[in-house]
Design brief:
The structure is a homodimer. Chain A is mostly helical and about 140 residues long. The first copy, chain A, contains five helices and three strands. Chain A has two domains: about 15-80, Orthogonal Bundle (Arc Repressor Mutant, subunit A), CATH 1.10.10; about 85-125. Chain A is about 55% helix and about 5% strand. Chain A has a three-stranded antiparallel sheet with strand order 1-3-2. In chain A, helix 1 packs across helix 3, helix 1 crosses helix 4 and helix 2 packs across helix 3. Chain B binds a DNA duplex (30 and 30 nucleotides) through helix 2 and helix 3.
Chain lengths: ~140, ~140
DNA sequence: TCAACTGTATTATTGCACTAATACGCTTTT
DNA sequence: AAAAGCGTATTAGTGCAATAATACAGTTGA
């Protein structure tokens, strides 16, 4: 059974997209594998404190993308081919990296400065300050 | 006069937040300096193809944060103290880097792999595929 | 069998980002 | 002074994310 214990909705992105992203990252990281059973829509919505329809929206899209198998009345399972896994990894990493590079470039720093920033901040603890930008 | 030629709204973030971010990044990068004149709400909205109220919402928040001076009937100008500039730089860079690190860690890759990814993708050209994740 | 679950579907409502159309009063320019 | 441009404010409407309350049909386990 796939665990959503580490899932925490945050940021401005719609929750259903965050669920999709959480599952995909789990797949890419190997913590979610082919054949894994998913929690039911109702169970997960209760666990996350959100509406069942929001979970359904996420799962439905994952099913449309071929990562989930669902049937009326039956439990849902992950269906991940090796090729699909490889593509997923590439997509996620590429998106992350390009997003950062785009931001850093806009801030006018060099590649070397960027590398130093990543390296020195890697083991930094997560802090609060969820929104920020005031004053 | 501050140029918004390189501004392009994209992603799921509200447009007014993207405008705020664009201005702040310009300040951090040095392309926007203290005393610079801002385009009028109407001009900019026409240029960006968005509603004047959306620009106003962005400028109003920047004024609340003390980065912009506005007066009824008058043009608007940037007001950036050296200290404010320094704080802004730190904030933006920190946010960018922590965002990426959080994502990459979730994808289960190491610090060394992360550094290699940044380095090898730095000079990569921006591509299309704005949404993605299909199939 | 039958109760308890499952996925799926429908309709209504709320909140927010954004658009749209004005209006008012001030500043600047001629 | 007068026109043009400015910041500011108000009101209304749209689209989407999310909530809420059901309902129905299929699967599963006691």
């Amino acid at each position: 059974m796939i665990s959503f214990d580490n899932f925490k909705a945050e940021g401005r992105s719609p929750v259903y997209l965050q669920i999709i992203s959480f599952v995909k990252r789990g797949v890419a990281a190997g913590s979610i594998v082919d054949g894994d059973e998913l929690p039911s829509r109702r169970m997960l919505s209760a666990l996350l404190g959100i509406n069942p329809n929001t979970v359904q929206k996420a799962f439905a899209q994952l099913e449309r993308e071929g990562l989930i198998w669902s049937g009326t009345g039956a439990k849902s399972y992950m269906t991940i081919s090796p090729k699909r896994l490889e593509l997923l990894r590439e997509e996620l990493l590429r998106d992350d990296v390009m997003l950062l590079i785009s931001s850093l470039k806009q801030s006018g720093i060099s590649r070397e400065e960027a590398l130093e920033l990543i390296s020195s901040n890697w083991d930094r603890e997560e802090e609060e300050d969820p929104e920020g930008e005031e004053l």
